[in-house]
């Protein structure tokens, strides 16, 4: 049968009010619209539900049985829809986020602190892993969303760029490059370098930058954790390249960073599974990460040059 929810509600209103006009007033319809809706319902069901006289509307036996059951069912449906809407607006529960080490160390602490202040009923768990693991954990739905270095393969994830930051030279304070007025990528040719390995989302971008700038350098060490770069550069094993997000440098070490010309940036992106909605709690944390990235960008713009 091809009946509508509106027809059923109109019928219940008539049964409760005992009048087309009063039912129309109760549900915001004209008397003629109520009458037309009842006729359509009766025609669709193939039975008479109401006996009409000039003075009153009386339920038939079939109409009485239907009205008694429909009142309960429509009330249950209304309650179910309200519960669903309440769940859809709920901002509580656990949100799982994955990010690589540098992002976890230098962006996520501010995000976690702000989220805790604004949404105390939401628990955010951070998984600090290499980029390949972050991507796979989003793909496998082990986390709600991830923060990675872009770009990624087109079309696999829903993504949003949140931060662009330059690559910088990391060297000792007594290095010849530390004294140069301007440091160009070409000046890195012939130098030994210490870089993160390919578990880092930045490594492919650095390789592309070196190739684009025609830099021929010897990569003498490839390390997994970004903080290992500092003691290796300090020990004179080689110079390095790191993103601005890795700042500030550890205190008390004879190291410095210099801008590289031309400026080459990396982009941080939020990613989630394609065609899958975030929970209300995960959505507000996604937006909080975006907001903190914007604030970080604004702070960097106000800082003096390196």
UniProtKB/TrEMBL annotation:
UniProt GO MF annotations: DNA binding; DNA-binding transcription factor activity
Keywords associated with the record: DNA-binding, Transcription, Transcription regulation
CDD domains assigned: PBP2_LTTR_like_4 (cd08440)
This protein's record includes keyword Lipid biosynthesis: no
GO cellular component, one term: cytosol
Family: Belongs to the LysR transcriptional regulatory family.
Protein name according to UniProt: HTH-type transcriptional regulator GltC
Originating species: Mixta intestinalis
Gene name for this UniProt entry: gltC_2
């Amino acid at each position: 049968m091809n009946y509508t929810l509106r027809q059923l509600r109109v019928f219940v209103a008539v049964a409760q009010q005992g009048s087309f006009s009063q039912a129309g007033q109760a549900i915001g319809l004209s008397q003629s619209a109520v009458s037309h809706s009842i006729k359509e319902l009766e025609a669709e069901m193939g039975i008479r539900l109401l006996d009409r006289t000039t003075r009153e509307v009386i339920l038939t036996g079939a109409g009485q049985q239907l009205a008694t059951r429909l009142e309960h069912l429509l009330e249950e449906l209304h309650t179910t829809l309200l519960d669903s809407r309440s769940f859809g607006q709920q901002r509580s529960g656990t949100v799982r986020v994955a990010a690589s080490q540098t992002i976890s160390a230098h962006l996520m602490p501010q995000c976690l602190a702000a989220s805790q202040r604004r949404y105390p009923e939401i628990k955010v768990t951070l998984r600090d892993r290499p980029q390949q693991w972050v991507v796979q954990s989003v793909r496998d739905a082990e986390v709600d969303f991830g923060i990675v270095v872009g770009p990624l393969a087109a079309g696999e994830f829903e993504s949003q760029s949140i931060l662009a930051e330059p690559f910088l030279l990391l060297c000792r304070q007594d290095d010849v490059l530390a004294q140069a007025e301007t440091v160009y990528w070409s000046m890195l040719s012939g130098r030994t370098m210490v870089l993160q390995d390919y578990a880092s989302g930045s490594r492919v971008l650095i390789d592309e930058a070196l190739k684009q700038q025609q830099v021929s350098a010897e990569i003498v060490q490839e390390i997994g954790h970004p903080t290992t770069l500092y003691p290796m550069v300090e020990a004179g094993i080689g110079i390095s390249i790191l993103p601005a997000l890795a700042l500030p440098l550890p205190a008390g070490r004879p190291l410095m960073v210099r801008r590289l010309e031309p400026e080459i940036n990396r982009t941080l992106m939020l990613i989630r599974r394609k065609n899958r909605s975030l929970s209300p709690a995960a959505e507000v944390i996604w937006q909080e990460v975006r907001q903190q990235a914007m604030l970080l960008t604004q702070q960097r713009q106000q800082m003096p040059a390196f």
